[in-house]
Please model this.
Amino acid sequence: MKKIVIAAVAILVIIVGITAYMNRGDLAAKQDSQDNAILIIKSDGAEVARVDMEYIKTLGEVEFDANIKSSGQDPEKHSFAGVPLKNVFDSQNIPTEGKTMVIVKAVDGYTSALNMDEVLEDDNVYLAYKRDGEPLGRKEDGGSGPYQVIIRKDPFSQRWCKFVMEIELQ
Ligand SMILES: Nc1nc2c(c(=O)[nH]1)N[C@H]1C(S)=C(S)[C@@H](COP(=O)(O)O)O[C@H]1N2
Ligand SMILES: [Mo]
Model:
């Protein structure tokens, strides 16, 4: 009996260790995203670019108003600043032809799926980094940043992904 318990504990320790080992890259990316506003771009599972806010801000800043709907509250109009998401792909020469989906992933594990068609539309999908003139702020400080994907033509803000850390073309 004692041997079985020891063996079971040993197996659990090994599983926890392996899981921690496999998650370490993910943890580093989360930290990098929240602390340094690093955004990772992937295409079909492989990383193709890693950009920071200083770079993103050079991609054609647009200021726009959008109605954000928080759960249980009426929509509120806010002004945002950001760049069209497609500009990020174009500037890094990341091909969008043949890709149908853009998957946006956040530090809290939240994921939004966008159609490539809506991403390529003019004045629709933005990678925002300011709200009412202020940086969006980190999750732990009660913010919604460093980046938030905003879909102007989608009146429901479920897919407006906050705390964005990774964007994958599929
Ligand atoms: N990363 C992340 N983005 C998210 C969410 C979330 O939990 N995590 N919630 C979504 C939902 S359901 C809504 S209504 C809007 C606004 O959420 P809030 O009211 O919690 O700010 O953000 C969307 N984006
Ligand atoms: Mo929501």
In short: The radius of gyration is 19 Å. The chain has a mean pLDDT of 95. The first strand starts at residue 39 and ends at 43.
